[in-house]
Specification:
Blueprint (H helix, E strand, L loop, with lengths): L1 H21 L5 E2 H4 E3 L5 E10 L12 H13 L17 E10 L8 E8 L10 E8 L5 E8 L5 E4 L4 E4 L4 E10 L12 E6 L4 H15 L4 E3 L4 E5 L8 H9 L2 E2 L6 E5 L4 E4 L4 E2 L4 E3 L2 E12 L10 E12 L11 E2 H10 L4 H13 L3 E2 L1 E4 L1
Parallel strand pairs: 15-23
Antiparallel strand pairs: 1-14, 2-11, 3-4, 3-6, 4-5, 5-10, 6-7, 7-10, 8-9, 11-13, 12-13, 15-16, 17-21, 17-22, 18-19, 19-20
C-alpha cells in the first residue's frame, strides 16, 4: 500500500523538478517585460478656482483672468454683476489653478481619481483652499471627469517680522480621490482578434524569445515578431470574445530577457554597474603604481590510457594585479570584465580609480561594451 501511494508523489516531485530546471533562475514574466498596445492611461486637464484662501490668492490687477473667471462663475450661479463694477471687485482669497489627472484604462463611471492642482496666477499659497467643481477634459475636448474638494499641499509657511520658514511648494496641491469619472472611454477589448505586445525596452532577442515562448505554450504559431519592440499575437478561437482571459494566460509566462553589454559609470558617486555580458580583450593598464596582467594559457588535456579519447587544448585564464611590477606579460584572448574588477577590488582599488581605468580601456578599444557616463 505504501509503495502504491508513494508513486504518484514521486511522479509529482519529478515533474516539479523538471519544470524548475526548465525555467531559468533569472526568468521574468512577460507581464513585466511588455505592455499591451492601446491599454494605457489618458491625461485630463481643467481650469478652475480655489477659494477660501487667507489673503494669499491672485492679485486682481496683475491677473486679469482671475477676476473674469470669478465674474463668469457668479453669473452662471444667477448672481448679477454689473459691467460697470467688474473692475472694482477685489478677491484676495481666490486663485486660478490648472487641474490635471490621469484616467486609467477601462475606468468606469463613479471611479475616483487623484488630481494635482497648480496655481496659474500670482497666488502666494493654496494652503487651506477648496477647489470648486472643475470639468476635466481629454485631448478630444470631451469631459470625462469632474474634480472638487479641499486641497492638501503637504507644506506650510510661517512669516515673522524679520524672517520666515517655508516647507515644500505652497502653490501646488493634491486632492486624493478628488475627481469623479463621469464618462467612460469606448471599450471593445474582449472582441479583439489580435493583440500587440510592446516591449518596454527594444531588443530583438527578447522579442523572439517571447514569440517562441507563446507559441510553445499554445502549441501552435499564434505569435509573430514584428520588430525589436513589437510582438503580434493572434487570439485563439478558444478565447473568442474573451481576450482578457487570453491575456491572463500569456502574461504569466516567463522569459529570460537579453540585454546589451553596458557599463554604467557615475563619476559623482563613484558607482560602477555592469552586466554579465561585458568582456574585455587584450589589454595592459598601468594606473600610477598599479599594473594589471591578463594571461590566457593553453593547457593540454590528455585522456586516460586506452580510453579512446583525444588530446585537446583547454585555455586557462589568469588575472593578476600587483603594485611595483616592472614587466607586463600579455597574451591576446578575451576575458570577462567582472574578473578584472574582482582582481582590482581584491587589492583595494577605489571606485574613482576603477572609473579612470575603464575609460582608458574603452578608449583603447579593448572594452567590448557600451560605456555610459551619468
Amino acid at each position: 500500500m505504501r509503495s502504491i501511494l508513494a508513486r504518484p508523489v514521486l511522479w509529482m516531485l519529478t515533474a516539479m523538478l523538471v519544470f524548475a530546471q526548465a525555467v531559468p533562475a533569472d526568468a521574468v514574466r512577460i507581464k513585466d517585460l511588455t505592455q499591451i498596445r492601446g491599454v494605457r492611461t489618458n491625461q485630463l486637464i481643467g481650469f478652475g478656482l480655489v477659494i477660501g484662501l487667507t489673503n494669499t490668492g491672485d492679485g486682481a490687477t496683475n491677473v486679469f483672468f482671475s477676476l473674469q473667471t470669478v465674474v463668469n462663475m457668479l453669473r452662471k450661479l444667477g448672481i448679477t454683476v454689473p459691467d460697470a463694477q467688474v473692475n472694482q471687485l477685489r478677491f484676495k482669497n481666490v486663485a486660478t489653478v490648472m487641474v490635471t489627472a490621469d484616467l486609467p484604462a477601462f475606468a468606469k463611471q463613479g471611479d475616483r481619481l487623484d488630481i494635482l492642482v497648480s496655481s496659474v496666477g500670482d497666488a502666494k499659497s493654496l494652503q487651506g483652499g477648496t477647489l470648486l467643481m472643475t470639468p476635466l477634459k481629454g485631448p478630444d475636448g470631451e469631459i470625462y471627469a469632474v474634480a472638487q474638494g479641499p486641497l492638501s499641499i503637504g507644506g506650510f509657511a510661517v512669516q515673522g517680522a524679520s524672517r520666515g520658514i517655508q516647507k515644500n511648494h505652497l502653490t501646488v496641491g493634491r486632492i486624493v480621490s478628488g475627481a469623479l469619472v463621469e464618462k467612460e472611454l469606448p471599450n471593445s477589448f474582449n472582441m479583439k482578434d489580435e493583440i500587440f505586445l510592446t516591449l518596454k525596452r527594444t531588443d530583438f532577442t527578447t522579442a523572439e524569445r517571447i514569440t517562441n515562448k507563446i507559441n510553445d505554450n499554445l502549441r501552435d504559431v499564434y505569435a509573430q515578431t514584428m520588430d525589436g519592440r513589437t510582438v503580434k499575437v493572434k487570439v485563439p478561437g478558444f478565447y473568442k470574445d474573451n481576450t482578457s482571459m487570453f491575456v491572463h494566460t500569456i502574461e504569466g509566462l516567463e522569459v529570460q530577457p537579453d540585454a546589451i553589454a553596458k557599463v554604467i559609470v557615475d563619476e559623482r558617486t563613484g558607482t560602477v554597474v555592469m552586466g554579465e555580458n561585458v568582456k574585455i580583450s587584450t589589454v595592459a593598464v598601468a594606473h600610477g603604481a598599479l599594473f594589471i596582467q591578463i594571461k590566457e594559457e593553453p593547457l593540454p588535456s590528455q585522456p586516460e590510457p586506452l580510453s579512446g579519447g583525444q588530446t585537446v587544448v583547454v585555455p586557462r585564464t589568469r588575472i593578476s594585479v600587483e603594485e611595483g611590477q616592472d614587466k607586463l606579460l600579455i597574451i591576446p584572448k578575451a576575458v570577462k570584465l567582472g574578473e578584472v574588477v574582482n582582481a582590482l577590488n581584491a587589492i583595494g582599488v577605489t571606485p574613482r580609480d576603477l572609473i579612470s581605468i575603464l575609460q582608458a580601456i574603452k578608449a583603447a578599444g579593448a572594452l567590448h561594451a557600451e560605456l555610459e557616463l551619468i
